[in-house]
Amino acid sequence: MVSGSATTKFLHALKFARVVCFNETTFYNLQKLYWTPAITSVWRMHQSALIEGLKAKRSPLVLGDVSMKFHDPRPKRS
After folding, report:
1. How high is the pLDDT of residue 75?
2. Is the overall model pTM greater than 0.85, yes or no?
3. Which phi and psi (to 5°) does residue 22 adopt?
4. Distance of alpha carbon 30 from alpha carbon 61, whole angstroms
5. CB–CB of 15/21 below 8 Å?
6. Cβ contacts of residue 27 below 8 Å, gap of 6+?
7. CB within 8 A of 30, min separation 6: which ones?
8. This protein's superkingdom (predicted)?
9. What is the mean pLDDT of each run of 10 residues along the chain (78 residues)?
10. CB atoms within 10 A of CB 55
């Protein structure tokens, strides 16, 4: 999946090299009808599996840079 400008340049390069290929409209139709839904479907399945795995662990989820030391706001005991 690429932006419009990259697609245009790529298809132009193929045409310049005399490589037979579909046109830009066909490319975008294929992307809209097949590639985007397929990628979205696979990502959602992967995302669901990740979420279910995290739920099964039943442990806190820590987001961010875990290499940093955490600040404990509780007063220190002597």
Report:
1. 72
2. no
3. -75, 165
4. 39
5. yes
6. 7, 11
7. 22
8. Eukaryota
9. 76 92 91 95 95 87 67 68
10. 9
Q: What is the separation, in whole angstroms, between the first and last Cα of the chain?
A: 59
In total, the chain counts a number of residues equal to: 78
Which burial class, exposed, middle or buried, applies to 11 when counting CB atoms under 10 A from its CB (0-12, 13-18, 19+)? Answer: middle
Tokens of 64: 């961010």
Tokens of 20: 């037979």
- The Cα diameter of the chain in Å comes to 79
Q: What is the DSSP letter of 9?
A: H
Alpha-helical regions (H) of 1-78 = 4-16, 24-30, 36-57
CA distance 67 to 17: 50
What the block records as the tokens of 54 is 């995290």
